[in-house]
Amino acid sequence: MTQSALMGAAVSLTGALALALPLGGAAFAQSTPVAITGGKVLTGTSVIENGTVVIQNGRVVSVGTGPAPSGARVIDATGKTVSPGFIAVDSGLGGSEVSSVQGSNDLASGANTISASFDVSYGLDPWSFTLPVARLGGITRAIVVPNHPGGGGGNHKDDGEDDFAGLGGGGLQSPGLFAGQAAIITLAQGNDILIKPRVAMIAPFGEAGARVAGGARGAEFIQFKETLAEVRLYARNKAAYDRAALRDLSLSRADLEALIPVANGTMPLIVTVHRAADIQQVLRLAKEEGVKVILDGAEEGWLVAADIAAAGVPALINPIDNLPGNFETRAARMENAAALNAAGVTIAIKGNEGSIHRAREMRYNAGNAVSHGLPYAAAIAAMTINPAKIFGEAGQAGELTPGAAADVVVWTGDPLEPLTTATNVFIAGQEQPISSRQFLLRDRYRNGGTQASGMPAAYNPQ
């Protein structure tokens, strides 16, 4: 490629990047109230026909059937649907641009000294091209989770590296059993998308966890129990550890510190697990060790739905996972979401393929779940109030209720219908652009650009 061609390519890339950048700095909530009137309001827990939602200073002020307050900006939602912003779970939004390009993927750590302590919040990119696309799908918040570098299954990376049990350099587990700590982000336009770091720990179980521990499920459970025993030993004897007067431990100090909240039950552990038998063993382990778990995947959960409900354990599921890709998912079926919900399990519905580029499809998945027996209200809850409850944001997100964050979406119709689009998206009271890099590039180039030659504006033919 000639130097001029390289320069032209650089100019084109620069122009494309410019199209994707936020139009302004940090978003500030409006002081003038906004009233969304006349629409069908899905609050997350109920339905209000011909409702009015009033937001101001980043919060929901009122939800009901009254008139708009004096002086408010009024958005007429007659014939439309108004919902809370959706919360994407088990997502990589803001943490990965192209999964196959290592330098743009900050969701996994292969260092055996940094496993449980790996914190995805430090790798978040507020200018990711994926965020506006997800936002157009009604997603206003996401739970960003790290991927495990050595285990397959679920939403976790399987790169074939370090896929064995044992001790690495310094006597540390390689790869570590834990993938790291999740974070909550906002999809609002601006320079800072982090809401809360370190909200949950991630670990693969089932086949993936067995591979890390040496090839057998039983080995993983023993390794997990031994790890928690070491964490508790360290927590009781930090002074001795500092003096090198404590026996050698299999984890680094950073990982030991990160696991203390898991060991004492204050930080939930997201467990990637699929097979019904594995789910039962995870529930048993959680009870024995006093840890708080969240099931991720649970394709065969319907077989043990009563056990999951009795344990009070929530599940992050993809309702369209209905084909047995391996022996862990032999009993996968489209009715899984309906069966879990009917048993009393709190479910949250995921997007597809890591919930990054296809995060917006979570609402399509919810629609499919409804067509296979999940009540409509439960499907909406599984994208709004349920994720908020699971991750400690109840009352703050996922619901249109006074005092909650003003994450509000106005839809042209039923949000579970694929042809429905968002006409207005508010995050923390700030209205977001209804656009994305793809739309901007389409508008820029579809008429041949602006040059007299008819070539696109950033095109250099030399």
Automatic annotation (TrEMBL):
Pfam families: Amidohydro_1. Keywords: Signal. Residues 278-424 form the Amidohydrolase-related domain. InterPro entries: Amidohydro-rel (IPR006680), Metal-dep_hydrolase_composite (IPR011059), Metal_Hydrolase (IPR032466), Metallo-dep_Hydrolase (IPR051781). This is Amidohydrolase family protein. SUPFAM superfamilies: Composite domain of metallo-dependent hydrolases, Metallo-dependent hydrolases. GO terms for molecular function: hydrolase activity, acting on carbon-nitrogen (but not peptide) bonds. Residues 1-29 form the signal peptide. The lineage of its organism: Bacteria, Pseudomonadati, Pseudomonadota, Alphaproteobacteria, Caulobacterales.
